[in-house]
Write a structure and sequence with these properties.
- The protein contains 15 helices and 15 strands.
- The protein is of the alpha/beta class.
- The longest helix is centred in the middle third of the chain and has 18 residues, at 147-164.
């Protein structure tokens, strides 16, 4: 493991022998200076002033922007493979819960683990995502459900970004579930989230955005809006776990607060779609959870497409419903399960995922003035990135202007 981005070699220089995904039939060139894209285009149009720069030979690789995993719960204690096995053997949700399973088991394991243990566990998971070409990632809290333990999760998320030289956006998800000690007292817990936890964590610089799980088994519309108002008062953007199991009207509420994204959205209504369109809110599709839960209610892809709502794709990595560690696999699933086209799916893990995190000015594209975050792939055409699963076609990864993978590129 590298101990920081500066330990990776600089990507400054002239990158040739590459094919830009926007026109894979033409040899492209990228100029990187001081970690920033200076120029990009066809090799034949390269300005003479850049011809003498340090060369980087891409070996004919296809180049895309760095991938972005815009919805994860990467930091947590333990794992829940035993619950997976129990469900396959016929156990009901209630039986799993009575056996100590469900989110309560992750909360317990997270509270019992110290920061070092949480960091070590999350680091191994992050390394697998980075090997898939991820250059930016969102990491939510939500398995601590107390100030002390939510802080611990968010501190680990920040440390991961520093240690691996990857852009990490932290999201406070204190309103993920009701902690055991607040059983039957959701109003009191939401007061704690809004009046104590969120202000303290924001003051410590640990929160980039605020999320809520708005669902019948989690928190109501009124409780969600209370959290959104607290976030708004602190100048923090909001996101929402919305319409996963039923149509609660959460997407329309989130849109009224200018939400960056609404995520899951299998039961999203026409009214919710229109509200998201008007607000510029991104729809984040999470095929890993859909697959793991063996859901059959598809997100309204055609309606989102017709409305022009941008669709992002993410792993939703979490121990209970989406233990996914490959964003490329999610690209494949988004195409096969949700019927996204290849361009839609690739936009979903680049430009639209960047927008879902508020990173559209720095990530999701290869353009002059943006930090150098791009991936070289050992494939002939972009469709292969959605077609193969189980393959790791990465040749080289440039993250934050440094060559993080494939130092000889």
């Amino acid at each position: 493991m590298k101990s920081g981005i500066n330990e990776f070699p600089s990507a400054d220089g002239l990158w040739t022998g590459i094919r830009l995904a926007t026109d894979a039939n033409v040899e492209g060139a990228i100029v990187v200076a001081q970690g920033t894209i200076r120029w990009v285009g066809a090799r034949s149009a390269l300005p003479a002033e850049f011809t003498g720069l340090k060369p980087h030979d891409g070996g004919g690789a296809l180049v895309t922007p760095g991938l972005i995993d815009c919805h994860t719960h990467l930091v947590y204690g333990g794992q829940r493979a035993n619950e997976f096995a129990m469900r396959l053997a016929g156990a009901t949700y209630e039986e799993v819960a009575k056996a100590g399973g469900g989110i309560v088991s992750s909360v317990r394991a997270t509270r019992e683990a110290d920061e070092a243990a949480l960091f070590a566990q999350a680091a191994s998971r992050l390394e697998q995502l980075l090997a898939d070409g991820v250059c930016a990632i969102e990491i939510k809290s939500g398995y601590g459900l107390s100030l002390e333990h939510e802080r611990k999760q968010l501190r680990v998320a920040r440390r991961l970004g520093e240690a691996y030289g990857v852009t990490v956006r932290t999201t406070f998800l204190g309103a993920h579930a009701l902690p055991p000690e607040y059983a039957g007292r959701s109003g009191e817990y939401i007061d704690l989230v809004c009046d104590e936890m969120l202000p303290a964590l924001a003051a410590e610089g640990l929160v980039d955005a605020v999320d809520v799980f708005c669902e019948r088994i989690a928190f109501s519309l009124a409780e969600t809006e209370q959290v959104f108002k607290a976030a708004q008062a602190l100048g923090l953007p909001v996101k929402l776990h919305a319409e996963q199991l039923s149509d609660m009207g959460g997407a329309a509420l989130a849109a009224r607060y200018g939400a960056l994204s609404c995520d899951h959205i299998e039961h999203l209504s026409a009214e919710g779609i229109e509200a998201m369109r008007s607000a510029g809110t991104v729809a984040v599709l999470l095929p890993g959870a859909y697959y793991t839960l063996r859901d059959t209610h598809l997100p309204p892809i055609d309606a989102l497409r017709a409305a022009g709502v941008p669709m992002a794709v993410s792993t939703d990595h979490n121990p209970g419903t989406s233990p996914a560690l490959s964003l490329l696999l999610m690209v494949n699933m988004a195409c096969t399960l949700f019927r996204l086209t290849v361009p839609e799916a690739l936009d979903g893990v680049t430009v639209h995922a960047a927008r879902a995190l508020g990173l559209q000015d720095t990530h999701g594209a290869i353009a002059p003035g943006m930090p150098a975050n791009f991936v070289l792939w050992n494939v002939r055409e972009a469709a292969e990135l959605a077609y193969w699963f189980g393959q790791q076609p990465v040749r080289a990864v440039v993250r934050q202007g440094r060559i993080a993978i494939g130092g000889n590129a």
